[in-house]
């Protein structure tokens, strides 16, 4: 940031002036913010200024009206939506909404304290039992955030004498949990089991405990980890394994019970199952599932659990009701799979590069550089399609992409029209940029 060119500095200043003017106009006189000069903030302003200069105006925080499902509306206009994780269409499902409302009527909107301090509502235990039964573990424990679940669990369970080895594409919450734990952190190339094996052969002996942290479906590329291979390596090196099922619960396995069901593994071979309530389960929060000792240890001692409020009644009831609907209607899982594969196959027919995608509901269309990906997203929005670009530094500069999240609610026609429109808009854009 120190070496910014003069014109970029001017652009940032202009942008800062504009923001300050806007804020001035709706508040009392503002003082200069001490955060304005933070290097990270300056970097953000630089990127915004550059995007603006390239004529890109992607709206990141657009307020949507109504449920975030296969259709979403912004400013009174409806869009075919690929930017949410409502994979099974259970957010907005009448039974889930009703259960959530009834819990609020009965218990209020907050449980107002940590569960260890003030006790819990019966729904907490019911949800934890339902999650454990659904994925096939002894117990589970729920936290108020999926992100916070990884941070709280990893940082609590591991320490200075331990090693956490994670996939190079692991979610930020896993990495933050490792950092906070004080354990040594290493990464292995994405889904490269030989590399993991070699790394552990070299380093296993230097540490007390070793955790292998992987995801089941990767949220940037939509590919699936080989769980059998991961378990084999864990056993070989006397390590532990944690699987983040944020994007596989409700998705993988015939009944949506996740990657454990898909690979038909003994669920006890994975030491720590983690998942979020915010995606297929139409709520907010996360869980850790595994044996009694794991959950008991976290329940009484993990800072992120005991020093934080219990899951809100409405969220708890929504997660519980979502599991009930999912158990009753496994056809949602089958439909999601069919729609996801349809999207991927039609994309291939049009010559799109879908990267590593394995037919899961996370389908990247790799377009090229960041500006091209942002412009394409903007054009699609103008045509009535909501899909977010993923750009550098989240992916390398030449792998800018549009990432489509498919839901069981998308119709086949919506999917076919989307692929046609993306191809059309991309061709136009490439002509203009040539
Ligand atoms: C792999 C993975 N883990 C954890 C999280 C955090 O979950 P939440 O958004 O429910 O906090 C996400 C969120 O997208 C995720 O993709």
Which ranges are low-confidence, i.e. pLDDT below 50, for 5 or more consecutive residues? none
DSSP E strands, number? 14
Task: Please give the radius of gyration in angstroms.
Answer: 23 Å
Report the major sheet. Answer: 7 strands, mixed
Distance from N terminus to C terminus (CA atoms, Å) equals 31 Å
Q: What structural class do you assign from the helix and strand content?
A: alpha/beta
What is the compact description of this entry?
The chain is an alpha/beta fold. Helices cover 46% and strands 15% of the residues. Pyridoxal-5'-phosphate binds next to helix 6.
Description of the molecule:
By secondary structure, the chain is of the alpha/beta class. The chain is built from 16 helices and 14 strands. The chain has a 7-stranded mixed sheet, sandwiched between helices. It has a 4-stranded mixed sheet with strand order 1-2-3-12. The chain has a 3-stranded antiparallel sheet with strand order 11-14-13, covered by helices on one side. Helix 1 packs across helix 2, helix 5 runs parallel beside helix 13 and helix 15 packs across helix 16. The longest helix is centred in the C-terminal third of the chain and has 22 residues. It starts with 5 loop residues before the first helix and ends with a helix. The model has no long low-confidence stretch (mean pLDDT 94). The chain binds pyridoxal-5'-phosphate (PLP). Pyridoxal-5'-phosphate binds next to helix 6.
Using brief descriptors, characterize the structure shown.
434 residues; alpha/beta; seven-stranded mixed beta sheet; 16 helices; 14 strands; binds pyridoxal-5'-phosphate
């Amino acid at each position: 940031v120190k070496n910014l060119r003069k014109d970029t500095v001017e652009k940032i200043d202009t942008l800062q002036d504009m923001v300050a003017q806007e804020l001035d106009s709706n508040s009392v006189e503002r003082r200069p913010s001490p955060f304005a000069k933070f290097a990270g903030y300056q970097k953000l302003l630089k990127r915004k200024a550059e995007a603006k200069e390239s004529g890109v105006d992607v709206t990141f925080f657009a307020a949507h009206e109504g449920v975030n499902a296969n259709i979403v509306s912004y400013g009174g206009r409806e869009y075919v939506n690929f930017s949410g994780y409502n994979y099974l269409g259970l957010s907005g499902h009448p039974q889930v909404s009703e259960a959530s409302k009834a819990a609020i009527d009965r218990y209020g909107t907050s449980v107002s304290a940590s569960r260890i301090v003030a006790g819990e509502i019966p729904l907490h235990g019911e949800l934890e039992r339902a999650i454990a039964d659904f994925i096939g573990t002894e117990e589970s424990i729920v936290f108020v955030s999926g992100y916070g679940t990884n941070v709280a669990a990893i940082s609590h369970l591991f320490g200075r004498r331990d090693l956490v080895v994670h996939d190079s594409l692991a979610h930020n919450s896993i990495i933050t949990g490792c950092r906070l734990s004080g354990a040594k952190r290493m990464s292995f190339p994405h889904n490269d089991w030989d590399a993991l094996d070699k790394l552990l052969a070299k380093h296993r002996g230097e540490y007390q405990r070793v955790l292998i942290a992987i995801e089941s479906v990767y949220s940037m590329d939509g590919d699936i980890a080989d769980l059998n291979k991961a378990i084999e390596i864990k056993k070989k090196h006397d390590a532990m394994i944690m699987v983040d099922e944020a994007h596989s619960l409700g998705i993988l396995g015939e009944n949506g019970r996740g990657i454990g069901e898909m690979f038909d593994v003994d669920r006890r071979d994975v030491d720590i199952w983690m998942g979020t309530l915010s995606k297929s389960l139409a709520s907010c929060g996360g869980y850790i599932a595994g044996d009694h000792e794991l959950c008991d240890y976290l329940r009484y001692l993990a800072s992120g659990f005991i020093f934080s409020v219990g899951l809100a009644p409405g969220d708890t009831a929504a997660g519980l009701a979502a599991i009930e609907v999912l158990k009753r209607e496994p056809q949602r899982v089958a439909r999601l799979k069919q729609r996801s594969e349809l999207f991927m196959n039609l994309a291939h027919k049009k010559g799109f590069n879908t990267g590593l995608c394995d037919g899961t509901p996370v389908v990247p269309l790799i377009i090229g550089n960041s500006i091209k990906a942002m412009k394409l997203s903007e054009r699609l929005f103008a045509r009535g399609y909501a899909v977010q670009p993923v750009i550098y530094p989240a992916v390398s500069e030449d792998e800018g992409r549009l990432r489509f999240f498919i839901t069981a609610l998308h119709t086949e026609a919506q999917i076919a029209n989307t692929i046609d429109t993306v191809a059309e808009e991309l061709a136009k854009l490439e002509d203009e940029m040539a």
